[in-house]
Amino acid sequence: MRALVTGANGFTGSHLVKLLLARGDSVTGLVRKSSNVSRLADCDVKFVYGDITDRAALTEAMTGVDVVFHTAAYVELGIVNAVEMERVNVEGTRAVLEVAKAVNVPKMIYCSTIGIFGDTQGNVINETFQRTQAEFSSAYDRTKYQAQQLVDQAVKDGLWVASVMPSGIFGKDDPHFLPVLSAFQKGRLKVWAGGSRVTGIVHVDDLAEAMILAVDRGKSGEYYIISAGDLTTQEMFEIFSQETGIPAPREAPKALVRIVASILDPIGRLSGWQPPIDNERVHYLYDRCVRVDATKARQELGWNPRSPEVTLKSLMKG
Predict the structure, then answer these.
(1) Residue 86 maps to which CATH number?
(2) Cα–Cα distance between 219 and 161 in angstroms, integer?
């Protein structure tokens, strides 16, 4: 199989590239000239350099491929550049879809997110759920929802696209959770906020496997939730504590966290600084709960992921 991976140097993209190569597939990676490609060191990848909205680069990268895996995205919560996020997540997806149709790409797998469903208020939902949250919790939530609408319209217009929707993605080189885990292992994480927050968990390699399975077993226009299950943050730290003997961090008082966030948020927005806590992150910690059921991916794709517990324990090894 000849594959193109957008965002090939990223966390998800790099793991997907390595799995494709291990299968014997040929891989082209779309990356920017300024991209750090250290994750792909020693990988036999053909690089095409260009921005995700660069239609000439996309045309070069897509010509002759069997499948496009669109994983490129601007992923961040808190103080973000919302204009840039929209350019990457929405306009970038628009460009990818338009070029894929123009060069007659046979299939595309789009890496979406369970966040498009919005706040499910703790109810467990599947792919049939219709979003009820009218507003958006973040720029990321909004831009990924808008990008999904573009994907769905492209399917109606005749392009073959299947959408995978991962929950929280974990792995040993995770750029978001790794600093937290590192601080915990060094005994520096004494206090944490939002211990009751529920997080869906999937290992990045299991996500990559699901995307590959979707090429052969998925159907165009279908959504596939990719989550091995969920745990609260407190349950996650208890697993880490059992593995290391390091005490789980104490729960910070919710009222205090909200006050600190309300002070730091405007400072961060005025200065362009990313504070350790802000109003958006507090919303995700205490006010928003998305829970999902990935039965469809297991049944239709034959996806068999490792458990959340095994995923978390694997982060502690090596």
Answers:
(1) 3.40.50.720
(2) 8
